[in-house]
Specification:
The complex is a heterodimer of chains A (436) and B (208). Chain A is an alpha+beta fold. Chain A contains seven helices and 24 strands. Chain A is 14% helix and 28% strand. Chain B is mainly α. At the A-B interface, strand 4, strand 5, helix 5, strand 13 and strand 15 of A face strand 1, helix 5 and strand 2 of B.
Chain lengths: 436, 208
């Protein structure tokens, strides 16, 4: 790599990665280079003294043949971006990787849409291999006429495409009361956002003829866990989709190929992947995944059940855990989202919560969708703690863990952590998870 | 073009009038896709038996014929489950314990086991049938599934080892956590949007 020529690109990359630690950037020489360019960029911005650029020579890429076009191909990211990957957990390491999860690298996501290869995963028995020609989707139970659909049947229906986030209810469960995960990928990366394309569930339910007595439906996957959840009919008829595509292409196998349910704003595990069946009934099933799992511990030994909605939440993605900053101007960026509507405002504190100032929202601000916020900051080099706090269109204000702890029991692997998330910055500029 | 527009407008008028006339309308009337395309193939419930595997917790609806007890369940568990879950379901190389959780929910360390957590015993049958063993889901017969269910309930102190579990006896078990759940009542916080002179965030960093 020509160091001088790639400098501009690397400065851009460095603004995102800053001095990323080894778990993000594996190549030591690249890491050193990044550190150097990040330092140069920050120093330059700070006006401490911009090193004079060396004279530019004509880059090799201007003087050689490029790579020829193959007859056909599926494009992949540049080899220089090979460090941008989903990762399994560093903290709560499962002894097997079939019922497991992997995190989206939020600190490296550059827009609000998560590329398909980086959408987070949560599987209950690995990723099944399903031939779409053989896949069948059934609606039965309390309907006038049970129906079987093939994929080609389904794809003849008029489609709708909607931008929505998806978040696992377990996002952040290792980091409630003390820091465990080091990066925002590991603290918040069970979160992704895509343009989902499919058919309103209501369209297909109407075809089968819903009994007026049906109030719940069981959705079931065609995977080795036959993962299933009970879902209220009201939500299914309101805005749920039967999805076959994300971001303009058929779903990836790990995201439910060829067909999944998508329930906007609700915990990810109800958006059943590899969807094979909807069975209508007049009460919930109380399956393992809605009693023994995906329930929230409450005071006095109780459990909260069917806590579907993902309440408003935000996090600063840069600077975030394991990054390193230099004194001078810093652009703070992050994501905010709400399962109950759109983001109305995001506030950022730069002094550990004593004062807050409103950040700028980057449009479009969409319903149940990731919204990017930013705030310019001039770090004076003193140790501090930064955090973000959002307000959604219902007026709900993102709580702190302290607020949540007053009303729920934080014990064990607790779901639905939407607490304000602090990052501490020490005198050396090292950014660390400071949850408590 | 002209004729198409006319047809479209006429159709819109008809739909509008239908709406005004108070016809029974489905929830999808507002969407552009309300018109039935009728592409789904009708099927009889009887032809869905192989897929219709769910069991409803509260009343056991969906539990199949068959039966099994903890004695036969132990042999099956030792052969097919213990390699991951450990002997007597006490925890193994892959997964943690499935016994001993009853009574732990009012302590600092809640232990989630089928005995302590499930409000309804039929859900245990449902889960084993749909998802276990991990390497061969849906491979156990109904009798085998009843037997393994009986063994796990026995290990949790909920049934004697000779009691036959079937669609009636399984649904009749009263699980310790039957009344342990509350339905979602959020929002349960009401944070204020303080901008100045706010209470500092609790952090893991020692105060400077």
């Amino acid at each position: 790599m020509d160091q001088k020529i790639d400098g501009v690109r690397l400065v851009a990359a460095a603004r995102t990665e800053l001095e990323a630690h080894s778990s993000i950037t594996h190549n030591p020489s690249r890491r050193a280079l990044l550190a150097k360019t990040a330092a140069a960029a920050v120093t330059g911005l700070a006006g401490v003294g911009v090193a004079r650029a060396e004279p530019l020579s004509v880059p090799e890429s201007n003087k050689t043949l490029g790579r020829p076009l193959p007859p056909e191909e599926y494009g992949v990211p540049s080899k220089y971006e090979s460090h941008v990957k989903r990762r399994r957990t560093d903290v709560l390491v499962n002894k097997q990787n079939y019922s497991d999860w992997s995190f989206t690298p939020l600190h490296q996501q550059l827009g609000t849409v998560t590329p398909n290869g980086l959408i987070y995963e949560r599987h209950h028995n690995g990723v099944p291999d399903i031939n779409p020609d053989q896949h069948r989707f059934v609606i039965h139970g309390m309907v006038r006429q049970p129906l079987v659909f093939s994929m080609s049947d389904l794809m003849k229906y008029p489609s709708v495409s909607r931008f929505h986030f998806m978040e696992c209810s377990g996002n952040g469960l290792t980091d409630w009361l003390k820091p465990a995960a080091r990066t925002v990928q590991q603290t918040h990366g069970l979160l992704s956002c895509a343009q989902w394309t499919g058919i309103p569930v209501s369209t297909l339910l109407d075809e089968a003829g819903v009994s007026p007595s049906a109030t719940w439906a069981l959705a079931e996957g065609g995977d080795g866990a036959a993962h299933a959840r009970s879902i209220p009919m009201k939500k299914l008829m309101e805005d749920a989709l039967i999805v076959y595509a994300a971001n303009g292409e058929m779903l990836r196998p790990e995201n439910g190929y060829p067909l999944r349910l998508f329930i906007p704003g609700w915990e990810g595990n109800v958006s059943i992947k590899w969807l094979r069946r909807l069975k209508l009934g007049d009460q919930p099933w109380h399956l393992r995944s809605e009693t023994a799992r995906y329930t929230d511990p409450m005071p006095d030994g109780k459990w909260r059940q069917f806590s579907f909605e993902m309440e408003a939440k935000s996090v600063i993605t840069s600077p975030s855990g394991s990054m390193k900053i230099r004194p001078g101007p810093i652009e703070i960026v992050g994501f905010a989202w709400s399962g109950k509507g759109s983001i109305r405002a995001v506030d950022v504190t730069l002094d550990g919560g004593r004062t807050w100032r409103q950040a700028q929202l980057e449009g479009p601000v969409m319903d149940k969708c990731l919204t990017r916020f930013r705030l310019q900051w001039n770090w004076n080099g003193g140790p501090t703690t930064i955090a973000s706090r959002c307000v959604d269109s219902t007026g709900y204000v993102q709580p702190t863990v302290e607020d949540i702890q007053k009303v729920r029991a934080i014990t064990g692997f607790v779901q639905h952590h939407n607490g304000v998330f602090p990052w501490s910055i020490n005198e050396a500029g090292e950014v660390k998870n400071a949850i408590a | 073009m002209r004729s198409l527009e006319t047809v479209t407008m006429a159709l819109a008028t008809v739909m509008l009038l239908a709406g005004c006339a108070g016809n029974t309308v489905s929830s999808t009337t507002a969407s552009p896709h309300a018109r039935s395309m009728a592409l789904g193939a009708p099927v009889a419930e009887a032809d869905l038996v192989a897929w219709n595997i769910d069991v409803r917790g509260p009343d056991g609806q969906g539990l199949p014929p068959g039966s099994g007890n903890a004695r036969t369940g132990k042999a099956l568990f030792d052969a097919k489950c213990a390699s991951c879950h450990g002997a007597a379901a006490a925890g193994g190389p892959m997964f943690g314990t499935m016994v001993g959780g009853i009574g732990s929910f009012k302590t600092d360390k809640r232990l989630l086991t089928p005995g302590s957590m499930y409000p309804y015993a039929p859900a245990l049958f449902d889960y084993i049938r749909r998802a276990m063993p991990l390497t061969e889901p849906q491979s156990l017969s109904n009798d085998e599934t009843y037997a393994v269910t009986a063994y796990l309930l026995h290990l949790n102190g909920l049934v004697d080892q000779d009691v036959e579990m079937n669609s009636t006896s399984l649904a009749a078990i009263r699980m310790p956590n039957r009344d342990g759940f509350i339905v979602d009542d959020r929002p349960d916080t009401s944070a204020a949007r303080c901008m100045q002179d706010c209470k500092p965030l609790r952090t893991s960093v020692a105060a400077p």
